Amino acid sequence: MSRVHEKILQSSEICYMDASASFEPLNTSITLLYTSCAVGVLPLGLFITSDELEITLEKALNLLKSILSQHAFYGREA
User: Fold this and answer.
1) Tens of pLDDT, residues 19-40
2) CA–CA separation, 1 vs 5, rounded Å?
3) Of the residues 34, 38, 45, 55, which has the maximum number of CB atoms within 10 A of its CB?
């Protein structure tokens, strides 16, 4: 997923979040972050959280940005 952030321009332009997956026995939400380009949909990240609250997803995105440093979202870090 780091390569998608680093090499695919669209990762700085458009992202999709899919929070439709969950694992009920553990009360866990699985959120996937994608971008799209000429070859199709590519993954940018995967978050496993206890809920789908805005603050939780914001913290997850900030953690992803800190892990990827300057390469996050094609160098945009936003």
Assistant:
1) 888 888 888 999 999 999 999 9
2) 7
3) 45
| Number of residues that this document lists for the chain | 78
**Of 63, 69, 24, 23, which Cα lies nearest the Cα of 45?**
63
Question: Of 4, 6, 21, 25, whose CA–CA distance to 70 is shortest?
Answer: 6
Give the predicted TM-score (pTM) of the model: 0.78
Reported for 60-67, long-range contacts at CB under 8 A and 24+ positions apart, including other chains, are 60/31, 61/33, 64/33
CB 31 within 8 A of CB 18: yes
Instruction: Give the C-alpha separation, 55 to 70, whole Å.
Output: 23
